[in-house]
Amino acid sequence: MRIPLIAGNWKLHKTLDESAQLVRTLVADLADLHDREIVVAPVFTALATVAAAVNGSTLRLAAQNCYPATTGAYTGEVSPLLLKDVGCSYVIVGHSERRQLLGENDAFINQKAKACIAAGLKVILCIGETLVERETDRMLDVLNRQVSDGLNGISADEMAGVVIAYEPVWAIGTGVTASDEQAQETHAFVRGLLQGLYNPEIAATTRIIYGGSVKPNNIDGLMAQEDIDGALVGGASLKAEDFIRIARFV
Ligand code: PEP
User: Fold this and answer.
1) Residue 227, number of CB atoms within 10 A of its CB
2) What's the chain's average pLDDT?
3) d(CA 97, CA 105)
4) Among residues 247, 164, 177, 163, which one has the least CA distance to residue 212?
5) DSSP secondary-structure letter at 3?
6) Tell me, what DSSP letter sits at residue 91?
7) Could you tell me if 60 and 39 are in contact, meaning their C-beta atoms sit under 8 angstroms apart?
8) 150 in contact with ligand 1, CB cutoff 6 A
9) What is the DSSP string of 152-172?
10) How far does the centroid of ligand 1 lie from the alpha carbon of residue 124, in Å?
């Protein structure tokens, strides 16, 4: 019912040549996978190049960010309309690096999510608690706020275009992964939130993917969990061999 999704977030890495080389390898080596969705999110400047390479393949293109306006006086920003125009299917919003480094809050992230949906793009909405929030028993409140404020005004019908990425901040880029059990427990909690905000059908059909130091050696255990529908992969998505193994989870 929920098609697994493996997404590679290349963050601020790779030149045009490096991006082209990596995506060509992925397109060739993952062509036989039809039971899952594979997505890559290069830097903005490589989107057109990577779009050309994934065109006609099983891979889909994502942007790492957007600005919630269509056109206008927004120097330095890129709109969902332009991301669609370049060939994106998905946009990542609310990544913890943007929340922490650029001060993005839930209301702004919600505007981005709605702007993407309005432009016909799917959204990967990132949520996740910091270590301090987890250790001081505020994790569930934080996730509740991030989910309900992030999805504010998004209808049940529009939820078909939303994927939630649970990414505990303490696990991103640290080499520390949530255990299979910790991740499963939190995904089940988030699914429960969707049931409360929407209905049992939305809760059962919305994909909730895990992010935070996903590697070839931990993907299979994570994907075996009932409520984990895929992975958002940072560091390990930069190396073709590692990302291919992750995409080929069993
Ligand atoms: C991410 O960037 O979303 C991420 C999970 O990074 P990493 O896999 O490197 O922890």
Assistant:
1) 20
2) 97
3) 12
4) 177
5) -
6) E
7) yes
8) no
9) TT--TGGGGGEEEEE--GGGT
10) 13
The predicted-structure confidence for 4-59, as pLDDT tens digits, reads as follows 999 999 999 999 999 999 999 999 999 999 999 999 999 999 999 999 999 999 99
* Inter-residue contact 28 to 57 (CB < 8 Å): no
Mode of pairing for the β-strands spanning 90-93 and 59-63: parallel
Ligand 1 pocket, 168 CB below 6 A? Answer: no
Cβ pair 4, 38 in contact under 8 A: no
Q: How far is the CA of 211 from the centre of ligand 1 (A)?
A: 6
* Residue 248: other Cβ atoms inside 10 A: 17
Q: What share of the chain is helix, strand, coil (3-state, %, to 5)?
A: 45, 15, 40
Question: pLDDT tens digits for 212-236?
Answer: 999 999 999 999 999 999 999 999 9
| pLDDT of 78 higher than 90 | yes
Centre of ligand 1 from the C-alpha of residue 72, in Å = 32
Task: Please check whether residue 42 is in contact with residue 88, taking contact to mean a CB–CB distance below 8 angstroms.
Answer: no
> The pTM is what?
0.97
Would the CB of 9 count as within 6 Å of ligand 1?
yes
Tens-place pLDDT, residues 161-188: 999 999 999 999 898 889 999 999 999 9
**Which of 232, 243, 246 is the pocket-test mutation for ligand 1 (most atoms within 8 Å of CB)?**
232
Nearest protein CA to atom 7 of ligand 1, as residue: 234
Say if residues 212 and 177 touch (Cβ distance below 8 Å).
Answer: yes
CA distance 40 to 47: 10
- Name the DSSP class of 44: G
CB atoms within 10 A of CB 150: 22
